[in-house]
Design a protein that fits this description.
Length: 420
């Protein structure tokens, strides 16, 4: 069947005989109500509701939605998203939406409707706190990282997955260009939201240390196929309600370095921290919320470390760091040392990737609502400039392995107006 994009009008006729939808929404498509709710950069997303319940239908378009048909993009990304979702659900059960149905030819996935969950970005603009957010995200990143790697998987299966996701060339290419390259030269698609940032952007483009760091990190991203990444784990890829967080939008999935998802995630909280002054009625009003955001970054790092450690001790069945070399010879301390050295390297990478993510969200094509919705350009660019400074430090000084406490202190110093 030829691929055709769905519309609100055509959806009932086209999905009426899909039992996975009828079972959850109701047997009579005439009673279904559909609305398009996609506000991301790439896809169509429909909520379909009926007498029995609701589902989400996500369909990939053959182009980049935020740019238009002038930027073709294979709808096959839906295939990678489907395969990533089922793996993530197996590795951290319940953290991603349940897949009800996948139609490869139509590049569409019918999945669980998360309600009343809200995209985390929106929540962080509205000052919403989620008590278990850091814990749940730390667990997700640790479990998917460990269980998608040669630390855990049978190696033939890991290699088959490596091959499967290696085909996700186009989305991977977006990350390679948009995250690691374009922010560091005058790329045609780059955007800055106010001329106040021109000087900082020029400084960044001329910054040799930073550009070398960016390419070192790009090399890691391209060539260190350590685990199956979510690949786009930002605050728009998380939905939350109360004490439940869910991770969505896995279409950028690819094998890459352990620290990539962790770094991207932490960067998004740091940016939300710096955006707060653009959303508060009076200076300092949101200090408690700022504390909460930074606390989440610390929790993510701590929980990641603790869970990765637990899995190292209990699930290390893959070809890497085999027990035969350590525990089976009574060398338990050596296994712990190997773990701690690995975690050190992962953290350093994560710091670097966090720096890249911050830069590209301010200087590149794809920006974030936390900054974009700050109406006053001077306030907005002041927030962005602080984030850019921290981003540079994270990337260039990553080998110094700043701790979460160091990052918090640096963020507060920048927030209070220090520039050094
Ligand atoms: C052209 S796509 C731009 C960005 O949107 C996605 O969510 C990814 O973050 C990508 O880099
Ligand atoms: Mg997305």
């Amino acid at each position: 069947v030829t691929y055709r994009p769905l519309t609100v009008e055509s959806l009932r006729a086209r999905l009426g005989d899909v039992s996975a939808v009828a079972e959850r929404v109701g047997p009579d498509p005439g009673a279904w109500r559909a609305r398009e709710v996609g506000d991301g950069n790439l896809n169509l997303v429909f909520v379909v509701e009926g007498p029995s319940g609701a589902v989400v239908v996500k369909q990939a378009l053959p182009y980049v939605r935020m740019v238009g048909e002038s930027w073709p993009l294979s709808a096959r990304r839906s295939y990678f998203e489907y395969h990533a979702l089922i793996r993530q659900d197996a590795r951290d059960p319940g953290r991603v939406p349940k897949v009800h149905h996948f139609d490869e030819a139509q590049a569409l996935i019918v999945m669980e409707y998360l309600t009343p969950h809200v995209i985390l970005r929106r929540g962080m603009i509205a000052r919403v706190m989620h008590p278990k957010l850091g814990e749940q995200l730390g667990l997700f990143v640790a479990r998917t990282a460990f269980r998608g790697s040669d630390l855990s998987m049978p190696t033939a299966q890991r290699k088959a997955d490596l091959a499967l996701f290696a085909d996700n060339v186009e989305l991977c290419g977006i990350t390679e260009s948009l995250v690691f390259t374009e922010p560091y030269f005058a790329a045609p698609m780059n955007r800055r939201t106010s001329p106040e940032l021109d000087a900082v952007a020029a400084e960044i483009r001329a910054d040799v240390e930073l550009k070398i760091a960016a390419q070192q990190l790009k090399l890691k991203f391209c060539a260190h196929a350590e685990t199956l990444l979510h690949g786009d784990l930002h605050a728009g890829s998380i939905m939350a309600h109360g004490d439940e967080a869910r991770v969505i939008d896995a279409e950028f999935a690819v094998y890459g370095p352990f620290g990539f998802d962790l770094g991207m995630l932490i960067a998004n909280f740091l940016m939300a921290f710096f955006a707060q002054s653009g959303h508060e009625a009076s200076a300092g009003e949101r200090d408690g919320y700022r504390e909460w955001i930074l606390g989440v970054t610390t929790t993510i790092g701590e929980v990641f470390r603790a869970e990765f450690t637990r899995l190292w001790r209990t699930e290390r069945a893959g070809i890497l760091y085999p027990r035969a070399l350590f525990e089976d010879q009574g060398q338990h301390e050596a296994a712990e040392r190997a773990l701690s050295e690995l975690l050190h390297d992962v953290w350093i990478d994560a710091l670097g990737f966090a720096g890249m993510e911050i830069h590209r969200r301010i200087l590149g094509l794809a920006h974030i609502a936390e900054f974009e919705l700050i109406a006053d350009p001077r306030t907005r660019s002041a927030c962005e400039a602080k984030a850019l400074r921290l981003g540079r430090r994270l990337a260039v000084e990553r080998a110094g392995a700043m701790t979460s406490a160091d990052i918090q202190a640096a963020a507060w110093r920048l927030e209070s107006g220090e520039t050094g």
